[in-house]
Amino acid sequence: MKNIIVLSLLFFAAFFKAQFSVNVKAPSDFNASEAYLYKLNGSKDLIIDKAIKKNNAWDFNVKEKYEGMMKIFFPEANSSVSFVTENSNVSLSFTSKNGKVAKTDYLDDVNKIFYGLQDQQKKKEQILPALYQIVTFYREDSPFGKALNDEINNLNSPIQYNKSEHTFIDYYVNNYSKFLSETAGVKSPNNDDIINFLNTSNNFLETSSLLRPILISFLSNSNKASLNVETDKLLKTVNIETPRGQTVLSELIDIFDVYSLKDLKTKYLAEAKALKCTINERLSGTIKSNDNTAIGAVIPNYKFLSPLNTKAKSLHEVKADKKVLIFWASTCPHCEKEIGEMITKYAELKSKNIEVVGFSLDTDKTAYADKVKLLPWINDTELKGWYSSYVETYNIHATPTFYVVDASNKIVATPDNFLEVLNFLGLK
Fold it and tell me: 176 and 277: one domain?
């Protein structure tokens, strides 16, 4: 009996032991302390662990099995580093420049192979065609001619690795090459090829970062007239009552949002809401974000961090007959144009008891400060870019994004630009 108990304890100890560890070393001048570890689900980063720097390093222990792309985000530096794991230990270090991650050195075998292949693929696509042209101008027996031919041969010689041991790497390399590579002379897959792949792929699809760009390629293959039919065909094949089908549906709804394909977004969002089966976390989040920002919904409140031009503590505390919300960034050219027009109209808006509230997706404190000092309306930022908490809450996929809310904080309009804001308010 005693032996059975001991064996049981050993079993549970092994069960709860970390599947793998992630060790990250930073230079002494990298000032960030907190770090967050993310895994991937389609195009969504999901946080799974947090660590505090000790001796210029961070250590994470991942308790669940995972193979695919991962990312570590340093919020204080607003910088990140990406890597892969095959449910295996990860070790890397990096240099910094201007407080950001600069060059990353991958120390474990999996990442050495993966990023070696990535580097080679990039050079094949961008440099190899030029080398073929240049080499014709040099004698083969000249020093430079020999060097050119050596590099051409090197780029055409695949990096050798054990495919049976490195299944995720093999999956990523093969499918990137097939579906996303721009190698000259290679025929692009058609939509039937893509549908078959999305339907039959293993779970590496969700953890590989390939899903969204392949879906965009799928939509690009379809003209406007056939987009509905092609999308229906895809979703019928992958079956939106399955986790894979729901993840694909969620990605498509977000893509339609990004590209302002409102009719398609409305159609497939309605299909998502009509599902009677269990909805996975990915699709559930998409539905919630859209419900938060639907016409007639009370816009979720936001507690300001360091607001400018107001004494209000939160979005709902800002009192006005109407509020125009703009999500923007100082690095966004479209925002620059829209904000310029807003400045000229702001006095007229204020005279009609209409307030503007800006939420910045900036990451650089200086760039934000330089821009925001010119803006007369309420502004706030987390300086976390697309990791800002309000990105998910307010369903932000692009900048600028506008909402108009009434005095009771109900959403009354979702204009595409400031001109539509003015038209809605009758101020053009």
Answer: yes
Amino acid making up residue 85: T
Compute the distance between CA of residue 324 and CA of residue 257 in angstroms, rounded to an integer.
20
Asked if residue 339 and residue 276 are part of one domain, the reply reads no
| The 44-52 sheet, strands edge to edge | 44-52, 34-41, 67-74, 79-86
CA distances from 411 to 15, 304, 322, 359 (A): 48, 19, 10, 16
Count structural domains, the chain: 3
Tell me the per-residue pLDDT of 69-122, one tens digit each, with 9 for 90 and over: 999 999 888 899 999 999 999 999 999 999 999 999 999 999 999 999 888 888
- The parent domain of residue 365 ranges over 322-425
Identify whether residues 227 and 339 lie together within a single domain. no
Contact 323, 335 (CB under 8 A): no
Are 183 and 17 contacting, i.e. CB atoms less than 8 angstroms apart?
A: no
367: helix, strand or coil: helix
Same-domain status, 407 and 346: yes
- Cα–Cα distance, 108 to 252 (Å, whole number): 35
